User: What shape does this take?
Amino acid sequence: MTSDGDTAEVPLVGSTWVHAFEEDGPDGAVYRPAGGTLPLSRRPRRRLSLHADGTATVADGGADDRAVGRATTWTTVDGTTVIHLPGGTSLRVVARAPGKLVVRSEPAPP
Assistant: This one.
């Protein structure tokens, strides 16, 4: 996994990002590139995968804690990437650095 100090840029689209909830802060939830080193956790980690055609996969822990992927979409709104979750909630990428995404959950519009 790249750290904040690394200069290698991981593409947002075509990569899988894993929730590093230990690093969450007031700005939002932190995601790191899949395949990197994250501490072991009993809590399942959400995974986000964005595809070039505007589709996305969001994988959360299922009943037996194995990842269950859900198909969804993503768009660019006001210059930022927004992932549209089933049920109307969205995840907005609010910050991006090499090897790190900060994502904020937004409720569905009324």
User: Anything to note?
Assistant: The CA atoms of residues 19 and 31 lie 4 Å apart. The domain at 16-106 is CATH 2.40.128 (Lipocalin).
